[in-house]
């Protein structure tokens, strides 16, 4: 255990890439980024996401307080498996950013040192708004302790061989949000991700992200900025980049429900005359049962164990448009129980549900043959957001309290 952390001072070590040099030369100027998601941006999901256009992916959040304990091999292996060599593999799992939550600079540094040779950067979670983060004093519940946040970031900046980044939520005012972002930059963050929601905006009170605050952050700092929030369709990505001026867009839930969110976006932009052809709609909204089966194939191929909770969570999200209709399959999927130590042996039960879903969705798609897919798109009355045919992957969105009230529900 380290007893002293090196203070911020000029280093004699070789200079590591910073800011835009890091963004361009190391990461390859990514615009389409998959967010760090607890138990949901695991290795199998990252491999699927890269097949469909993701250019940079963050790992699920790792708790530095637990990861720092080298004797806790179960936690370490479950959160970043160094044994099989697949996580952070230069050929199949990069570029990669490993995210930690922490409130102790020493614990954070020791944990980051374990993974620094297996990723391009280490990220500090300053955005988690959940109760567990409140109890553990991390994530967005650190945002009033700027001295501690500075120390956490600066410790990594000074002592790691790779850059440190940070993901954070906004404050109620633009002014405080901007000052916060500038502090993160001074501390040594080389890329920051601005989630345009307040700490209180979660669950049923999620609401809309504030792109104006993200724009203000982008204009106030000299390092790359990723925007996060309100990304459901590819058209939202284009709109967000134009509205905020950010260098990239990070998606969490939008990409979870449709892992093909980024597919073909640079080849067929939203203003392309063939954007709404069947071929291009299917490129960015594949059949969800096919995606679910492809994900299961990846889980089967990996030596690294995928958690049962991650698998089930992904299947429920990917196939949601079908599951809300095929309630017997939803019930059957919910009842599947797999031994976490014998995951591959139990995948057949998940696969059976997915294959039955595929049969039913192919049936419905065939019944609609002859009608262009664009003519089968409807509009959800409360939110005004478009809804794709139910056999296709698509976002799930919750109406805001204001929208519900306006609609009289």
Automatic annotation (TrEMBL):
Catalyzed reactions per annotation: 5,6-dihydrouridine(16) in tRNA + NAD(+) = uridine(16) in tRNA + NADH + H(+); 5,6-dihydrouridine(17) in tRNA + NAD(+) = uridine(17) in tRNA + NADH + H(+); a 5,6-dihydrouridine in mRNA + NADP(+) = a uridine in mRNA + NADPH + H(+); 5,6-dihydrouridine(17) in tRNA + NADP(+) = uridine(17) in tRNA + NADPH + H(+)
Residue ranges of every copy of the DUS-like FMN-binding domain listed in the record: 34-336
GO biological process terms, semicolon-separated: mRNA processing
Pfam families: Dus
Entry keywords, A to Z: Flavoprotein, FMN, mRNA processing, NAD, NADP, Oxidoreductase, tRNA processing
SUPFAM superfamilies to which the protein is assigned, alphabetical: FMN-linked oxidoreductases (SSF51395)
Classification via CDD domains: DUS_like_FMN
Cited InterPro entries: Aldolase_TIM (IPR013785), DUS-like_FMN-bd (IPR035587), tRNA_hU_synthase_CS (IPR018517)
Gene Ontology MF term list: flavin adenine dinucleotide binding; tRNA dihydrouridine synthase activity
Cofactor dependency: FMN
This enzyme's EC code(s): 1.3.1.88
UniProt family annotation: Belongs to the Dus family. Dus1 subfamily.
PANTHER family: TRNA-DIHYDROURIDINE SYNTHASE, TRNA-DIHYDROURIDINE(16_17) SYNTHASE [NAD(P)(+)]-LIKE
Protein's recorded name: tRNA-dihydrouridine(16/17) synthase [NAD(P)(+)]
Annotated source species: Gymnopilus dilepis
